[in-house]
């Protein structure tokens, strides 16, 4: 009897060592598709041990050259793994046995991957670190084109410890590159799909009047300050004016209705529910559209902003939370955008200056640090101002009737004073510099990881470091 012909069957796998099912009388060709690279670069706690675990799927440890469910590395060590292009489940990152982060492909927006085995999936670089004292990067000397695939980055990090001094910068560790040869060679004939183009555009200021740009850029200099601490600069004063305008605009309805009225805190003992505090307004409530009752509980949304949450700890916390959210909504958001615009103008002026060493005075990390601190201070300032106003109102409104007009003016004065205080603390503790150095160290870690990928797999990651321009 003649031999029966074998059925030709091609099976694709993503990781070396992945099992393949075999059928009788079948000629199977195993094709290794291009995997997705994942790099962890964590510098958070010296001496810490990290574990990466895969749920519902497998990872390939490049150093161990083995398909595993989990891998381990030390703080400050770059850890490189492969995952399948349709990786299921999550990558769980643990620090000394405790869950630190949890990642999924859906989180990265990588649920849909090209079907072709020749296409190289985008890499994932996870850089986490505390602030490091580092210096602005110099411009790269490479003249290669920037025809590169988009680099997926996910720098999640704990909030920097602003009040601690930055650790000394170690250039040997920062510039060190780990190299690891590929444990296998891809099948002959496997080619790289045409890469996408990443276009970098330079900002053109020609459409903006030069006088306006120069005025905004110079408005943050110490020479324009009216105080000895060099905080109340021209741009700072403009920012406070914008914030005051935003507060008045967002609260204009109740301000108009209650401007000539007074209110006081009154304690009432109910038979069934016990003691309760109320905000009692003077005037005729029938003539009002917003504040339509003569008396409100201190936790009522309509009086949280007016009284600053005076009365109880719960109402004070609620008022502080509402104040923080208000800094990022409506007119408050517009004022915040205006502040960011001033930050950008000041930064751009310094960015264009070249120092004696041939480096720019500022880089992009300086802009991110300044904006990040200003966003944090906006929410914190609103919360603190609300607490201060609530404490003052609670101390006075329980004994005398307070004019609403005085509360409005007092809230504005307190907000400006709190903002000044936060800026003073920022200047004394160098918080902005710490955040800036943290952004810069994260960017350097990601650039070094991209250089490592280019060095290890030049065909797949040619010119990737060009994505990280200063």
UniProtKB/TrEMBL annotation:
It comes from the Bacteria. This is Transmembrane protein. The lineage of its organism: Bacteria, Pseudomonadati, Pseudomonadota, Betaproteobacteria, Burkholderiales. It comes from Paraburkholderia metrosideri. Keywords: Membrane, Transmembrane, Transmembrane helix. The chain crosses the membrane at residues 378-398, 404-422.
